[in-house]
Every structure is written in structure tokens, then in C-alpha cells.
Amino acid sequence: MKKFLLGSSTSAHQVEGNNLFSDYWAMERMQYTDFAEKSGAAVDHYHRYGEDIALMKKAGLNAYRFSIEWARVEPEEGRFDEGEIAHYRDVLRCCAENGIEPVVTLHHFTSPKWLIEKGGWEDPAVVGYFARYAKKIAESLGEFLGYVCTINEANMGIQVSAIAARYRAQMMAKAAAAQSLEGAAQVGMNFNTMMENMKKKAEENARVFGTPTPQVFVSARTPEGDALVMQAHVAAREAIKAVCPQAKVGVTLSLHDIQPTADGEARAAKEWDEEFAHYLPYLQGDDFFGLQNYTRSVIGRDGLIPADESMRRTQMDYEFYPEALGHVIRRVYRESGLPILVTENGIATAKDEERVEFIDKALAGVRECRAEGIPVLGYLHWSFCDNFEWQKGFSMTFGLVAVDRTTMERHPKESLFHLGAYAGKFND
After folding, report:
1. Is residue 427 part of a domain?
2. What is the pTM of this model?
3. C-beta separation of 252 from 156 below 8 A
4. Does residue 427 register a pLDDT over 90?
5. Helix (H) or strand (E) holding 66
6. Would you tell me which of 110, 220, 348, 374 could form a disulfide with 396, CB atoms 3.0–4.6 Å apart?
7. C-alpha closest to that of 219 among 157, 154, 167, 155
8. Quick one: average pLDDT of 116-140?
9. 177 — pLDDT class (breaks 50, 70, 90)
């Protein structure tokens, strides 16, 4: 096998700061927002990427997954900002100078505000818009592109749709907030606030986006919108390949280790089909699969069974279950046959020793899978640094590096160097 990619991941909006032309920037500033706080300058990775990439090298990491921000590159429909493209060229060049393999994601949840005003991710035009953007990146930055993830967690809208339905049902049944369901999506979401603000927010959305129901990427997806997301992936893949045939292109999905109870086999099979299996036809031309996993889902006859209160939880209310990664790798490879790149796996915790434990157990699963002959290309830990965890704000600490957001000073945690110590151990 080729050199194992060992590194960390970030996304532009969560670390760069001042993403002025994106839908999220607008949503964070709404009166009836679902966001706990604004992203603002985030952790200023936009200006400090050189320092951060040098720190990755110092720790022994050899890969870095980051996203190019579509809203920066194309702030107005059809107008590409060459200065911003040059910025990302500098980031890619910095990776090369430090011996870091870049894994580029073209879309990580945030979209240009103009795209949402035109119908967003439920409008068929999104396929062409995204393909045009992907082509521009390939033409401008192709010499640096090795691995490209078109869309981050392309299935997130379907997951949000299912969780929102469960949430509404539980509220109707109990007339109480369904706190346990906030840990069911592998993304920071404030479902309580979302439900309370629904009517007032619709009126404000109409003023901000021109529609009471803007279709941002993590809106609850319809089956038709779900298909559009995957069509956008395929169109982008073909656009990239036409310009850069050497680039390895794939998509990432958010996957749980779905474990059925004795009477939950049928329901678990349905959950897995929604989360992964029905996407298989769209993956046929991909070079690799970007696997993102944080925990498991135990499924009974009637659906998700929340983790028992006695079980260890993360800050995100996930069950602490690093063993999930190996289980999901095996299942995905069995069903897809694609080489697998772990593009996200990690834990939100204030206890770094817990993060170290999580890394050890997750990587034990990766090593076992590789020993079984499964082509696992690499492991990219989420996240390089504590950052803006979407609607949860800065309260969730996933990072290998802490950041003083007053001074933006970086404070590496033990877990960063612990992860880096694995370098070379996967190339035996």
C-alpha cells in the first residue's frame, strides 16, 4: 500500500473566520437564529494557516484535510475571486513545503448566499452551479490536487430530516424537549431552539433569503433533494476528472455503526439503506470513499434506542464508542469495494486523556482492518483545533490544539503528538 495518510481535518467556516458571503454568516446574524453564537474571526486560520500547518509537521502528521470555501471563491453568481483562489493556492503550496498531503473538500456545509436565494439544494440548478465551481478549482489549482472530496457528509440532509421527524413525534407524545436526540446527528445542531423559533424564523428568512424555507445544505432534505446532492457530486467528479485526470475524487458520508437489537434487524437495515446503501450507484466512478464516524446507533423494532444514562457520553451527547470505526470500515468496504479514507473521526471532550484513549481504540480498529486486507488509505482526525461547531458555537472541544480566542495563540494538546507518534506504524 502507498504511504498511510495520518493527519487531521478542518472546515473553512469553522476555522478561517469572516466568511462574509455565506449562508451561515447570514443565519448567524438573524434575530431568530438557531446559533448559540457567531463565528466571527473563528480561530483565524485564514491568516494563521502557515503556523498551523508547520505545527502539524512538527507533530509528525503527513496529511491535512481542509475545505475551500465556495462563498469566498464565488461571492456573487458567476464572479470568481482570483484573490481568494490565490489564497488557497498559497495554502496548498504551504502543505507541499511542509511535506503535508492535502485532502481538499470543495463543499463543507456552507454555501454562497446567492445560491440559497436561487433555490439552494432543492433546486436542480444546483448541480450545474456546483460543477462549474468544481471545474474552476480544478483549472486553477489542479497541479496541487491529489485527493478531492467533492461534498462533506452528502447524506446530512437526510439524517436531519429523520431526526427532525423523531423530534417532532417525541414532542407531540411527551410535550417535552427531546434532549437525547441532539446526539443523534454527527453535527452540532440545536433542535430545541430550532423548534421554538420556527414561525418567527420563517418570516425573517423571507426577508434575508427571499423565501421562508431556505434550502441550505443541512436543511431537512426531500428524497428529490437527496438525489440532487449526489448528482452534484457526480457532476463535480466528472468536471474535475476532465481537467485533472490524476486527481483521486470521492465523497464523504456521515455514518453510524448501526447495531440492531434482537427485534430490530428490519428497522436497522432500513436505517443503513437511508444512511449509506442507497448511495452506492453514485459511488461507482469514485476513486475512494470518505468515511466519517463518531459513534454507534443501536436500533430496535421502533427505531433508535438512546444510549443508556450510565454510558459514557461526549460533549455532543454521543456515546463514547471508538470501536464503531472499525465496524463501519468493514461494512462499507464489503458493500462498496472502494478504498477507504477516514476523513473524520474524533471526540468532543474537555479531557484530553479521553481523546488519547479514543485515538488509540479507533486506530486499533483501523490497523485490524488493514491487517485483514482492507485498503484503508488514511486516518484524518477531527479536528486539528478547537473550533466553531456550527450551531453549538465554540463550546464543543474536538481539537488536538486549543486556541485562545482573545490572542489566537495555539496551545497543542498531548493528543496532537500522541496521534503523530503513529506516523510510520501503518506502513510496515
Report:
1. no
2. 0.93
3. no
4. no
5. strand 63-67
6. 348
7. 157
8. 98
9. very low
